[in-house]
Design brief:
Helix content: under 10%
Number of helices: 6
Oligomer: single chain
InterPro entries: Cu-oxidase-like_N, Cu-oxidase_2nd, Cu-oxidase_C, Cu-oxidase_fam, Cupredoxin
Organism: Oryza meyeriana var. granulata
Strand content: 35-45%
GO molecular function, one term: oxidoreductase activity
Number of domains: 3
Shape: globular
Pfam families: Cu-oxidase, Cu-oxidase_2, Cu-oxidase_3
Largest sheet: 7 strands, mixed
CATH superfamily of the largest domain: Cupredoxins -  blue copper proteins
Structural class: mainly beta
Protein name: L-ascorbate oxidase
């Protein structure tokens, strides 16, 4: 089954000799990409608008790779504003230098280029990348990342006839810079104009068919919500979906007729082309907002000239359905992931919790303008990236550690606007609680790690809720939803040294301060635990002209 428009990224041909050299030296294979990032005009939802293109494409090129491949992406910024890319779900082991956020990296200036180098180290699964500065994410610039297992690692399902990306997300027809100005002025940008699927909306999404299938074959669909605000429900007319993977973990293979996909989340389903040959709608609809929007693309059985039935299945209603569906997701304990040992050989539920961090999502007004934060602290980026200030030991005047406590303030006082950096002890097992007192949905993400989402429920969290935790087979993943006026609990070992972002995937909230950074420092200061700043690392702010600090000790 082939998409009508093939958009998969290819290694840059002139660099193939380098890739071969990497193999000869015994390294993992190299994949090289060159991206020219520009503005372009696209008519989306019947409105011509400025979008961010990569090599002229929207969405951007797909990165297809295997576990442990060396991914080298040379980004040429031809915009008129600074640019960074973040790789949503990539853990960047020992290497927060490549995370592509304002807290870890100086921006790529207009008219210049920067080369990212990272590995999906011991990772498999479905992910995506996007531009992380300001509201650029609302202008596109996103694309899929597919990481397959190495050849000798068993996969718990037969190879599909094809492996297809489905990028769905809400879309606003406002210019991304205008959206940022609205937020800066204390206003909001309201509800989305519609929904896109693989960069198409309205009638453009349904004609021509997006995918063509052959009867009797099975296909893998990797579905990611790349939007900025709205949860979506995904379904395929007349076809059930077998869930097999979620954000880098193999799941128990249950069947679903529709799946909620929250902002920043990804999953894989297997779909059998076992229906009467014809055309069928693939639908993504908004959830939990009054002015519902949807988009329908067409899957065509090869040789069909039968139009799809107009009876498109309705999305489910209400929160309870969504929460119950989340509770049905289970980690596949016997399947291998990136390594040959079974996923379930890691018994996270038997590890003692050394610390609990309770993060209350805070909302308030500063000078009459809306801000968000955690525990009364609303994050603002510093002129010097936090990781660089820490590495060069020039944090004075840039940020102070641990200005936020592990528990929300007893009194809901005014928000404090400052760079929000907390520390955790290296290799400790920590419980993190997110509480969302708002009337709208939230989705949170942690860079550098996968965590176990062990519980969620209504109201405020208390220690009694631990009795409800799933301590056996919660799915290991990087993003999780927090329902309105509800809590969500996650657990993880902080064993990846670096500076890592915790953020709302709801980009309006993220822009207005609902994020923080966690500094995880290895006391050994060893290259076994963290890489030095890369030789091509950009400098800005207080670290310009400073001599490099001593190297970390040899591994």
């Amino acid at each position: 089954m082939q998409p009508e428009s093939e958009r998969r990224a290819r290694p840059v041909k002139q660099r193939e000799g380098v890739a071969l050299a990497g193999v000869v030296r015994g390294e993992d294979p190299y994949l090289f990409f060159e991206w020219k990032v520009t503005y372009g005009t696209k008519t989306l939802l019947d409105v011509p608008q400025k979008v961010i293109l990569i090599n002229g494409e929207f969405p951007g090129p797909r990165i297809n790779c295997s576990s442990n491949n060396n991914i080298v992406v040379n980004v040429f910024n031809e915009l008129d504003e600074p640019l960074l890319f973040t790789w949503n779900g990539m853990q960047h082991r020992k290497n927060s230098w490549q995370d592509g956020l304002a807290g870890t990296q100086c921006p790529i200036a207009p008219g210049t280029n920067f080369t990212y180098k990272w590995q999906p180290k011991d990772q498999i699964g479905s992910f995506f990348y996007f531009p992380s500065i300001g509201m650029q994410r609302a202008a596109g610039g996103y694309g899929a990342i597919s990481v397959v297992s190495r050849l000798l690692i068993p996969v718990p399902f037969d190879p599909p006839a094809d492996d297809l990306e489905v990028l769905i997300g809400d879309w606003y027809t406002k210019d991304h810079a205008a959206m940022a100005k609205l937020l800066d002025a204390g206003k909001n940008f309201g509800r989305p104009a519609g929904v896109l699927i693989n960069g198409k909306g309205g009638k453009d999404a349904a004609d021509p068919p997006m995918f063509t299938v052959e009867a009797g074959k099975t296909y893998r669909f990797r579905v990611c919500n790349v939007g900025i605000k709205t949860s979506l429900n995904f379904r395929i007319q007349g076809h059930d979906m077998k869930l097999v993977e979620m954000e880098g973990s193999h799941t128990l293979q249950d069947m679903y007729d529709s799946l909620d996909v929250h902002v920043g989340h990804c999953f894989s389903v297997l779909v059998d082309a076992d229906q009467k040959p014809g055309d069928y709608y693939m639908v993504a609809s908004t959830r939990f907002i009054h002015d519902a929007k949807s988009v329908s693309a067409v899957i065509r059985y090869a040789g069909s000239n039968t139009p799809p039935s107009p009876n498109v299945p309705e999305p489910p209603a209400g929160w309870a359905w969504s929460i119950n569906q989340w509770r049905s997701f289970r980690w596949n304990l016997t399947a291998s992931a990136a390594r040959p040992n079974p996923q379930g050989s890691y018994h996270y539920g038997q590890i003692n919790i050394t610390r609990t961090i309770k993060l209350l999502i805070s909302r308030g007004h500063i000078d009459g303008k809306l801000r968000y934060g955690f525990n009364g602290v609303s994050h603002v980026d510093a002129d010097t990236p936090l990781k660089l200030a820490e590495y060069f030991n020039v944090t004075d005047g840039v940020f102070k550690y641990n200005q936020m406590s592990d528990v929300p303030p007893a009194v809901n006082g005014p928000l404090h606007v400052l760079p929000n950096v907390i520390t955790t002890e290296f290799r400790t097992f920590i419980e993190v609680i997110f509480e969302n007192p708002e009337k709208s949905m939230d989705s949170v993400h942690l860079d550098g790690y996968a965590f176990f989402a062990v519980g969620m429920g209504p109201g405020k969290w208390s220690p009694e809720e631990r009795k409800t935790y799933n301590l056996l087979d919660a799915v290991s993943r990087h993003s999780i939803q927090v329902y309105p006026r509800s809590w969500t609990a996650i657990m993880l070992t902080f064993d990846n040294a670096g500076m890592w972002n915790v953020r709302s995937n709801i980009w309006e909230r993220h822009y207005l301060g609902e994020q923080l950074y966690i500094s995880v420092v290895s006391p050994a200061r060893s290259l076994r635990d963290e890489y030095n700043m890369p030789e091509n690392g950009l400098r800005c702010g207080k670290v310009v002209g400073l001599p490099l600090p001593p190297s970390y000790l040899p591994a």
